[in-house]
Amino acid sequence: MQRQLGLNPNEVRERLRLLLIGEPEFACLAAHLTALDRLHADCIEALFVHLGRFEGSAALLADPGRVERLKGQQQAYFRQLLRGPYDMQYVRLRVLVGLTHERLGIDLKWYLSAFHFYLDFMHKAIGRHWHAEPKLAEQLYGCLLKAAFFDITLTADTYVAADKQALQASEDRYARAVRGANDGLWEWHVEEDRLHLSERWLAMLGLDAARAPRTLNDWAALIPESQRGRFLAAVQAHREGRQPFLHYECELRDSWGRLIWVMIRAVMATDLHGEHLLAGSLTDISQRKQTEEALAHQALHDALTGLPNRQQVGELLSQALQRQAKPGARHAAVLFIDLDRFKLINESLGHQTGDQVLIQVAKRIERCLRPGDHLGRFGGDEFVVLLDDMAKPLDAELVSKRIMHALQYPIIAGSRRLAVSVSIGVAPLTGRGNEQDALREADLALYRAKAFGKGQLALYNDSLQEEATQRLNLENALSEALARDQFELYYQPIVQVSAGRAQVVGVEALLRWWQGERLVSPDQFIPVLEESGEIVAVGEWVLRQACTQVRQWHQQGLAGLRCSVNLSSRQLQEPGFAERVALILKETCLPAASLVLEITESLLMRDGPETLATLRELESMGVRIALDDFGTGFSSLGYLHRYPLHIIKVDKSFITKAPNDERLKAISRAIIGLGRGLEMDVIAEGIETPEQMDFLHNEGCQFVQGYWFSRPQSALAIHPVLQRLSTIEQAEEGGQEAVPAPAIVQ
């Protein structure tokens, strides 16, 4: 503080010289110190009585101990005031006292009033004490007055310097904050319509002082016309007190013609002359706006393809439905597109390849659309197309076929050429309902398309909604069927025909569902169980019931009878499936060799290493594995080598017409020969006629199954059939073996 006040020895001497303080004054005071000390003591007592009259100081002086300390400090000060010396140490002490008082919040006016009391008291006291020597009294008071003024100037300067220091610190903090915020500052003198703009304000727009806006309208001219009126309205609202602050975001055109986003903030104030000022800051928020726009885009668009996402598709559909509700609107439709067997690509080639496929599929679909149409990714491998402003409803079907045609050509993903296809559901937009209804209708059409196989197209009609409702009701009923004991197992014999004998060797357990008195077709409810996942619990029930029943038949004399149970892919994928099979065999006391688990080719195509490991674990337990419906799918001889298979079941589609169809006869013969060559049992399914039996007998197929022997029946009804089939022998006719007559045909 001393340096800030410039209080060096020369300055101190100059102040003493201006106050005419020198050796004569020091000598005059020194000659009368004893008397002056007594007068100072009286002054101190009077001063504290005087201070006690004021509310603020009275509380401070309520403590007697504090009062005595303060009186002692005041006495020491008065002694130093009389004796000096007025050197740098004295000055430093006075500055420190003044600074302390300022920081304690003691106003300068209070400090000056205390000095006024002191000088007034001492003037009267000196006059009374030296009343006989008025000239001496006048001389002594003059010396004391000079010393007091020396102190007063030091204290007053300290107060002023402290205020300046605080003000400068505040201004420095504000300047640092402004520099840190990188804001431009501005003031608008309302009555004069005059702008004052900081250098940073001008620099943000690439302007210099010569090109700076002079008035508020000059500034507003830099704002795009679409935003200008709202800016001026915001200023007016704040001026009229309807808004506590001015806060407005808009674009400004810089000197290069570019638009930058800024935030304008200000508050109305009054200057020293009573004029109104609107003062505030200008902040460049372009980066923030870019980030907001990017986040808004991300919120409404798919990260992989850049297409509108589910939320944006919903908004686009909502807008289209509003247009459709207006009279005279042209036709519109929504397409729900799903990639066929995309899960297989992901699982076999990895998600990175799958992503490349999705990107290329999206690009191909986009090229098939018209201007004004919209393509969005709904999620996973599903896309949605909004066709708007169509001349006729048929246009939706034409666009769908164009999309399917565009995807006929292979897609290049890395080093692979992949054949992809899509299924498409088409639903017209009628203006009724909301976007969820439109998507649901398109999804129902897609469901119908996929039911026809891959690469299919289906159009929505009201019957699809009825079917969906029925399917939902069916699913709900199925979810309770197991608990309500509505399932029952039917059994169909598997017969070995060899060496003149027809001997039952096993049964296939087939699930049936009773709804009241009505028997529901497996073709209706098995797919629903698969889709809902209920097949896992129901499948375990089937396995346990079948093993229990076959074990019971063993005990009733049908020793060696095998039980065939169909498996779904969901069951086989369940962790610990082999362990559960082992537990069921143990609980039912059925030998593992008496259990055959039937799987399909499609299951082997979808599943990977886990399936192979589970099948090998089952084989190691003694369970036999049968490949069902062989030849109906994309059969691969590699499956027969890779997987632990023991039985091939020839689908009835080959057997039914084989006796009269040379091609089917050749295929059936090849399958039978293949099984025999691989030392696998071959079971022919769907045997219904003597001609079919004769054909299989001639081809050496020993194991057969079909209505020729028995329809599937309940355990109670099939038991006598099994007993008969366990003893049938072939009859001799004309010295040749004849095919066995049907035991039961029901």
UniProtKB/TrEMBL annotation:
PROSITE patterns: EAL, GGDEF, PAC. This is Diguanylate cyclase DosC. Residues 330-462 form the GGDEF domain. Residues 246-297 form the PAC domain. Pfam families: EAL, GGDEF, PAS_3, Protoglobin. Residues 471-726 form the EAL domain. SMART domains: EAL, GGDEF. The lineage of its organism: Bacteria, Pseudomonadati, Pseudomonadota, Gammaproteobacteria, Pseudomonadales. CDD domains: EAL (cd01948), GGDEF (cd01949), globin_sensor (cd01068). GO terms for molecular function: heme binding; oxygen binding.
